Amino acid sequence: MNLHLLQHPQSWLSNLDGRTKLAMFFAYVLAVLFTKPNAYWTWLSLAGLLLILFTLARVQIRWIAFRLVPVLPFVALGALGVLLGGSKEMFLQVTVKMLLCVGAAVWLSGTTPFTQLLEALRKLKVPSLLTIMLSFMFRYLFVLAEEAIRMSRAYQSRCPRKQTLGDAENIGRLAGALMLRTYNRAERIYLAMLSRGFSGEFRTLSVQRMTFADIVFLAIFVGLVTAIFVVTQ
Questions:
Q1: pLDDT tens digits, residue range 7-35?
Q2: Residue 211 CB coordination number (10 Å)
Q3: Residue 146's Cα: distance from chain center in Å?
Q4: Which long-range contacts link 136-141 to residues 24+ away (Cβ below 8 Å)?
Q5: C-alpha span between 23 and 31 (Å, rounded)
């Protein structure tokens, strides 16, 4: 299974250092989270800034929908919980903020491959255990998905009929077998890595470097976010 479910579009933003884009992402998210309730002009301005970033990155609408649609049910569920337990103003505030933050995350993933994000985190001195866990999760999530697909195909070939509630026991057994296979494969992979000299740290030949263009673009972006936050609040 391809690690990039849908190839992200290439642009000049893709050539910026991962640390630059991470800093832009966190600056944007902090600005969104610290906006006051009913800050409609601030939200609209930040949404416009995000739209400009998508345009500069040449991100296609189909690509945005591919990444955004799976997250929308969770956003709707969280917003519904706020609506049931709070006011309509709180519901609007939480919904808008979640959408803006998710949109910023989609932009980050669209301009930076996950491997570059991990490298940027390592260069920012994030604990190595966390980056290693994220790396393994990203890589072997696809292996687990492939194993689940093979087991499901084998089950369907032996039980070619529409599934009912009576098949819940069989499906539960399949899930248990999948977890056992996952555990056994993880142990084999770890032993294979140790036999090849793995010492708890990934070594790469990356050439990512912070350049003057990175610093200038980051300064301009932070200045725009600060200006929007100050003027429209």
A1: 455 677 777 888 899 999 999 999 999 98
A2: 13
A3: 20
A4: 138/3, 138/114, 139/3, 140/186, 140/189
A5: 12
DSSP, residue by residue, 134-201: HHHHHHHHHHHHHHHHHHHHHHHHHS-S---GGGHHHHHHHHHHHHHHHHHHHHHHHHHHHHTT--S-
Q: What is the pLDDT of residues 92-135, one digit of tens each?
A: 888 888 889 988 988 888 888 888 888 888 888 888 778 888 88
Taken in order 154, 158, 163, 168, is the CA torsion positive or negative?
negative
Q: How far is CA 10 from the centre of its chain?
A: 18
**C-alpha closest to that of 10 among 56, 49, 48:** 56
Which pair of tokens denotes residue 222? 């932070």
Separation CA 19–CA 156 (nearest Å): 46
CB 38 within 8 A of CB 129: no
Query: Exposure string (b/e) for 40-72, b if CB count within 10 Å is 16 or more?
Result: eebbebbeebbeebbeebebeeebeeebbeeee
